[in-house]
């Protein structure tokens, strides 16, 4: 059928060429096939659409025949003609045909699709005539049996200009067809047939038109596109393979949900950040010092003092970072204050300071950029909510999966993600007693504030007490008194988080929000930790500074004595050689920077130990006991009391964040700390991944992590800021030690910069800097920045509003669409029928069939009205009518009908003369003669 | 089997379903059935080529949508109704969700995508939904 339709619709020329005898038959076929063809298939399936059927019956018949016969088109065409004739004879027959159709309908299901596509194609091609025309020509030429075909042959030889142009177009179209053939939802058999025809056609005519060269180029192009696709795919794979631990995290995510995975993603991000910091520190500070600085043992700061040398290699000492560790590149004190070292005149002290500050600058930048990017990603989810479950249902299985393990993971992750969405959904459905809920939430917050206040006071009290103890003799204190602060801190850390969790039960938040609250509360608690630590540290530093002043005076005194003695013995006052003391014996100050560095390293290491031991005992041992003691226990350990541990997201995230804070604070005093941290993150990635998979069970309510990790990032930013302040404070105000570190001998650390500006840069630069540091300039710059912030803030607010507006509009549109459809359904029977027909049409844009169907109906009626087989004249009349009836733009596509009966006088050359619209009009006019 | 002499050979579903590309796929039976001309899963060579051409990377979204619809339409009534959704869901999750959860998911899915209010998904509904799915193209294809 479809094919027939195509032919018929084919160029007017062809139709004209064909025998006049046909003309009568064609119109009938047309009428049937024309627009209804699209809907035919549907109609077959659902026999309830009464109106169209009548019109279609005939078409359907022809379709069936064509399918069944599946022979040459000619035969079909003939059949259709016959059928058409039959229809003309009586409508009763047509009803019988209906029955046939129904029977055939089931088989024809697949064919329907093809047909639809055919129709579409025609539309798509714009020139409806194109294909049909070609097909006809093909047939004629190849098979030459038709009486009409003889005409064609003769015409071919004497092609006119217009003919040539048309042929070219057709060839082009055929080529297009060949290129897009694979995109058609036809059965392979049909595609092959189509392809062969198209190819033979192209072959035949390309020669005639003198453009056979395109072929190789085309083949080349196809090959190149394939290559490019393959390359892109490989590149994507490569990129994915370059993301470390992706599969590991995916595995965890598939079993524990995105919330647990978000911790590991955060951990990975942190690892990346630390790797960059490590690169800075080692590339610009540590390596130059090792390669170009003075070797170990050459000067006092690089040598273990004599009295410590015996025990310097003891494990207990090294474990506390004393001995050789203390006098190594790990710590601040080892670095020399030589202005420039090595062949390259590397300014080590300057580099040290810049790296120390640069670490903060870089971290700030990265954190803020990540936050901004996450916020962007979170913002575009306008449609996100629209089809959550549908998309999960229909697109979550990845058809590429062919590996049983991956498949298992995928099943787990799909289940988990469904559970996550279900939790969200249930949260929406929950109807609640608002007042009770509010009351409980306020109560919970009050309780937690009390807890926080109490623990804050406890910390303050203990710290004060310990300061009192510090003034006493250390030997008189009991162990309890010495370690009071630590004990209280760890007790608080142990008791409070579970307490908060219990209190949070009152609030009954969605688990995702509950996690945020929990994080924020524990964060507040841990701030106390940080505060005591810093407090103690500054006390220590001040004491060290005092001590150092004393030692410094003593050294100067000793040196003066030495000079005096030297003059006394050798009677020389000038050029006194420096005292010849082994670097190990030199009197040295306490070097507070190294001490601080050691504190931080110790803290980090003990943190690592505690974390790992907790996992080993709290998770692994517990899991082992629960698993194996369960065989001989009086209650069910797995389901009952101890059960397996859940992964503690909030604790782990905060641990990571505070650890990073330690690194930021300590990196300036202990460059090696960054290296330690990189190792720690690396190992904990593997260790925790293993622990989670081996010993933990998923949360009871698996919940989806918020898509942006911005809450974690926000906490991190806060910690970064908190750790930035003490470091900057110490750089700007505290005097550096006089005998160790890159800044020894300077009053303040930042003097290095002044020195560089004065000595290394041309003088005008110094001027520029002095202007730039003018308070007037700085104040105005700050003012400008404030204004910029204000402006940008206002702009972003405006965008946000616009965004919200658009979202609302989209939602409204969706609702409206739904409503409209619903209303239609109930009010308009015709529309309903049409809609029911639609599923099979699949490829046709929904609105078309409805509009097109009407005209078809009208057309079929209109002829009756006019009732006269007046050839072209009537055709025009109908055409006008049609225009009126359609009013709005009529979808032309389906109207690709064979032209109506035409005056025989037309010349093939002129064939194209009448515009397609007219052709169609005529085509519609066609039917009357039959009836 | 002698394909050259007897090109109408059909390979039964049981064989096709065991090829490595389909072995792990929870919808493998449906895939093969929807591509077979007889609907029973016996594939002729043409059907087979058809299947992988539709599932290939090059196939356009509309084409994939048609066949995806067929695949998920378990009872072949040209609508995806609630039973179809339940089957899909159970296959996807290996029946690990409770009946209430399954019910909730199916109801939500229909509510989301059903535009004409007949509480089942017609192809138009399905296409409208799938054409906006970000992952559809990347997940609905097989490389061989």
Shape of chain B: globular
Output the number of helix runs of chain A.
33
Q: Which CATH architecture of the largest domain in chain B is right?
A: Orthogonal Bundle
Radius of gyration of chain B: 16 Å
Total individual domains of chain B: 2
Strand content of chain A: under 5%
Q: Between the first and last Cα atoms of chain A, what is the distance in angstroms?
A: 21 Å
Mean pLDDT over the full residue set of chain A: 72
* Overall strand count of chain B: 2
Main beta sheet of chain B, described? 2 strands, antiparallel
GO molecular function, one term (chain B): magnesium ion binding
Protein name (chain B): Calcium and integrin-binding family member 2
Organism (chain B): Carassius auratus
Keywords (chain B): Calcium, Cell membrane, Cell projection, Cytoplasm, Integrin, Magnesium, Membrane, Metal-binding, Repeat
Q: Care to describe what's here?
A:
The complex is a heterodimer of chains A (931) and B (144). Chain A has 931 residues and is mostly helical. Chain A contains 33 helices and two strands. Chain A has helices at 2-9, 12-17, 20-33, 36-45, 50-69, 73-89, 91-125, 129-143, 147-157, 161-180, 188-209, 214-242, 246-292, 315-319, 323-326, 348-379, 388-395, 404-429, 434-471, 479-482, 484-507, 511-570, 592-629, 649-667, 672-695, 710-733, 751-759, 763-772, 775-827, 829-841, 847-866, 871-886, 916-925, and strands spanning 645-646, 696-697. Chain A starts with a helix and ends in a 6-residue tail after the last helix. Chain B has a two-stranded antiparallel sheet. Chain B has helices at residues 13-16, 20-23, 28-35, 45-54, 61-72, 82-93, 99-113, 123-130, 136-139, and strands at residues 10-11, 43-44. Chain B is mostly helical. In chain B, helix 6 (82-93) crosses helix 7. Chain B has two domains: 8-55, Recoverin, domain 1 (Orthogonal Bundle); 60-143, EF-hand (Recoverin, domain 1), CATH 1.10.238. The two termini of chain B are 23 Å apart. Chain B has nine helices and two strands; from the N terminus they run E-H-H-H-E-H-H-H-H-H-H. At the A-B interface, helix 11, helix 17, helix 18, helix 29 and helix 30 of A face helix 2, helix 4, helix 5, helix 6 and helix 7 of B. Chain B: Residues 60-95, 101-136 form the EF-hand domain. Chain B: It is found in: Cell membrane; Cell projection, Cilium, Photoreceptor outer segment; Cell projection, Stereocilium; Cytoplasm. Chain B: InterPro entries: CIBP, EF-hand-dom_pair, EF_hand_dom. Chain B: Its main location: membrane. Chain B: It holds the Pfam family EF-hand_7.
């Amino acid at each position: 059928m479809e094919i027939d339709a195509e032919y018929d619709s084919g160029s007017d020329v062809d139709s004209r060429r064909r025998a006049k005898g046909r003309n009568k038959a064609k119109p009938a076929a047309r009428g049937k096939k024309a627009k209804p063809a699209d809907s035919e298939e549907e109609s077959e399936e659902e026999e309830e659409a009464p109106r169209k059927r009548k019109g279609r019956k005939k078409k359907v018949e022809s379709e069936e025949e064509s399918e069944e016969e599946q022979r040459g088109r000619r035969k079909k065409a003939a059949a259709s003609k016959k059928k058409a004739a039959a229809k003309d004879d009586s409508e009763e027959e047509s009803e019988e045909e209906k029955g046939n159709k129904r029977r055939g309908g089931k088989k024809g299901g697949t064919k329907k699709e093809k047909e639809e596509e055919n129709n579409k194609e025609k539309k798509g091609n714009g020139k409806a005539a194109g294909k049909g025309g070609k097909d006809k020509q093909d047939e004629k030429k190849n098979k030459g049996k038709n009486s009409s075909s003889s005409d064609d042959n003769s015409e071919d030889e004497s092609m006119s200009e217009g003919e040539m142009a048309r042929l070219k177009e057709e060839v082009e179209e055929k080529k297009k067809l060949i290129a897009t053939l694979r995109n058609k939802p036809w059965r392979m058999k049909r595609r092959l047939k189509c392809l062969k025809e198209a190819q033979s056609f192209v072959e035949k005519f390309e020669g005639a038109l003198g453009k056979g060269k395109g072929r190789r180029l085309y083949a080349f192009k196809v090959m190149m596109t394939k290559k490019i696709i393959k390359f892109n795919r490989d590149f994507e794979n490569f990129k994915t393979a370059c993301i470390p631990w992706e599969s590991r995290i995916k595995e965890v995510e598939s079993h524990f949900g995105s919330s647990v995975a978000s911790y590991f993603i955060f951990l990975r991000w942190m690892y990346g950040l630390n790797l960059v910091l490590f690169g800075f520190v080692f590339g610009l500070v540590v390596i130059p010092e090792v390669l170009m600085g003075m070797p170990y043992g050459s000067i006092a700061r690089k040598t273990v003092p004599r009295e410590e040398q015996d025990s310097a290699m003891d494990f207990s000492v090294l474990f506390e970072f004393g001995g050789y560790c203390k006098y190594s590149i790990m710590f601040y004190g080892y670095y020399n204050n030589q202005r420039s070292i090595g062949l390259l005149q590397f300014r080590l002290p300057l580099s040290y300071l810049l790296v120390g500050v640069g670490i903060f600058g870089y971290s700030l930048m990265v954190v803020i950029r990540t936050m901004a990017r996450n916020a962007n990603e979170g913002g575009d989810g306008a449609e996100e909510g629209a089809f959550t479950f549908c998309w999960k249902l229909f697109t979550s299985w990845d058809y590429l999966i062919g590996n049983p393990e991956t498949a298992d993971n995928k099943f787990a992750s799909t289940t988990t993600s469904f559970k996550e969405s279900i939790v969200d959904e249930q949260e929406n459905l929950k109807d609640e007693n608002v007042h009770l809920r509010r009351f409980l939430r306020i109560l919970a917050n009050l309780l937690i504030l009390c807890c926080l206040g109490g623990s804050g006071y406890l910390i303050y009290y203990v710290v004060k007490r310990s300061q009192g103890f510090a003034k006493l003799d250390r030997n008189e204190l009991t162990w309890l008194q010495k370690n009071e602060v630590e004990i209280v801190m760890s007790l608080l850390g142990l008791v409070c988080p579970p307490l908060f969790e219990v209190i949070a039960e009152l609030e009954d938040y969605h688990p995702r929000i509950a996690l945020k609250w929990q994080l924020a509360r524990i964060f507040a608690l841990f701030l106390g930790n940080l505060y005591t630590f810093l407090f103690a540290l500054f006390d220590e530093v001040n004491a060290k500074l005092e001590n150092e002043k004393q030692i410094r005076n003593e050294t100067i005194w000793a040196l003066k004595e030495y000079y005096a003695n030297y003059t006394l013995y050798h009677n020389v006052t000038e050029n006194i050689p420096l005292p010849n003391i082994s670097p190990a014996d030199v009197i040295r100050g306490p070097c507070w920077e190294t001490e601080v560095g050691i504190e931080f390293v110790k803290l980090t290491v003990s943190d690592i130990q505690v974390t790992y031991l907790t996992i080993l005992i709290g998770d692994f041992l517990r899991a082992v006991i629960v698993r194996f003691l369960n065989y001989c226990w009086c209650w069910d350990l797995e389901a009952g009391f101890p059960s397996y541990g859940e992964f503690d997201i909030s604790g782990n995230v905060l641990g990571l964040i505070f650890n990073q804070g330690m690194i930021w604070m300590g990196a300036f005093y202990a460059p090696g700390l960054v290296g330690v941290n990189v190792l720690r993150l690396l190992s904990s990635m593997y260790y925790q991944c293993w622990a989670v998979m081996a010993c933990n069970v998923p949360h009871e309510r698996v919940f989806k992590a918020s898509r942006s990790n911005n809450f974690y990032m926000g906490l991190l930013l806060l910690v970064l800021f908190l750790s930035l302040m003490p470091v900057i404070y110490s750089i700007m105000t505290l005097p550096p030690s006089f005998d160790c570190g890159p800044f020894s001998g300077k009053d303040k650390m930042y003097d290095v910069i002044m020195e560089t500006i004065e000595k290394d840069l041309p003088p005008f630069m110094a001027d520029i800097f002095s202007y730039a540091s003018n308070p007037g300039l700085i104040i105005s710059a700050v003012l400008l920045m404030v204004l910029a912030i204000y402006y940008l803030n206002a702009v972003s607010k405006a965008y946000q509003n616009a965004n919200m507006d658009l979202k609302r509009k989209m939602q409204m549109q969706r609702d409206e669409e739904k409503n409209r459809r619903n209303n239609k359904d109930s009010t308009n029977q015709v529309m309903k029928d049409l809609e029911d027909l639609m599923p099979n049409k699949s490829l046709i844009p929904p609105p078309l069939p409805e509009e097109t169907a009407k005209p078809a109906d009208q057309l079929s009626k209109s002829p009756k009205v006019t009732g006269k087989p007046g050839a072209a004249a009537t055709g025009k009349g109908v055409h006008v009518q049609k225009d009126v009836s359609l009013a709005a733009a009529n979808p032309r596509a389906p109207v690709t009908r064979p032209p109506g009966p035409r005056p025989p006088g037309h010349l093939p050359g002129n064939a194209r003369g009448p515009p397609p619209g007219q052709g169609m009009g005529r085509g519609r006019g066609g039917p009357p003669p039959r009836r | 089997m002698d394909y050259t002499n007897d090109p109408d050979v059909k390979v039964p579903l049981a064989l096709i379903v065991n090829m490595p590309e389909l072995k792990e796929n929870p919808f493998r039976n449906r895939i093969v059935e929807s591509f077979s001309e007889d609907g029973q899963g016996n594939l002729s060579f043409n059907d087979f080529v058809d299947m992988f051409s539709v599932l290939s990377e090059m196939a356009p979204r509309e084409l994939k949508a048609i066949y995806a619809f067929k695949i998920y339409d378990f009872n072949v009534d040209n609508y995806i109704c609630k039973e179809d959704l339940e089957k899909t869901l159970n296959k996807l999750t290996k029946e690990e969700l409770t009946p209430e959860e399954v019910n909730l998911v199916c109801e939500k899915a229909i509510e989301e995508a059903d535009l004409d209010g007949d509480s089942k998904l017609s192809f138009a509904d399905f296409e409208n939904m799938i054409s906006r799915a970000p992952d559809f193209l990347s997940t609905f294809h097989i490389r061989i």
